[in-house]
Design brief:
Helix content: 10-25%
Largest sheet: 4 strands, antiparallel
Number of domains: 2
Distance between the termini: 46 Å
Number of helices: 2
Shape: elongated
Bound molecules: iron/sulfur cluster
CATH class of the largest domain: Alpha Beta
């Protein structure tokens, strides 16, 4: 049994996931506490293969002489959730990025990371 809070909408239903007997392809999961079907889908995904959107910051390449007051790091985020166990490897690759300005919100800085279909995009324009 696992207790979760649904994060799909602001209602934040308290969910309980219970495992049934083993079956081919994994045990059947029973979800209770959800007010809608999206909560059941979320709970099953969270139980079997949790994923997260990853946010971080990347250093900005310094212009010659620098610009006073300009941020030194750019916020970035993934365009799709990443399997939780792969987040440390993804962050290691994100931290190797050095951003060259100008950049617009949504510009892809790291495309199709390790063939996963996950992109890393700028989260603001600079
Ligand atoms: S179960 Fe449905 S109503 Fe409840 S928090 Fe999740 S999405 Fe919102």
């Amino acid at each position: 049994m696992k207790n979760l809070t649904c994060i799909v909408c602001p209602t934040g239903c308290s969910l309980v996931v219970e495992e049934g007997p083993p079956e081919p392809g994994g045990p059947r999961l029973t979800v209770t506490g959800n007010r809608c079907s999206r909560g059941a889908v979320y709970a099953q995904e969270e139980f079997r293969a949790p994923r997260r959107v990853v946010t971080a910051t990347c250093p900005i390449m310094e212009a010659a002489g620098g610009e006073p007051g300009r941020p030194r790091r750019l916020p970035v985020k993934t365009t799709a959730p990443c399997p939780r166990e792969r987040i440390p490897a993804l962050l290691a690759d994100i931290y190797r990025i050095t951003v060259r300005l100008p950049v617009k919100t949504g510009d892809i800085l790291l495309a199709n990371w390790q063939g996963s279909g996950i992109n890393v995009a700028a989260a603001r324009s600079l």
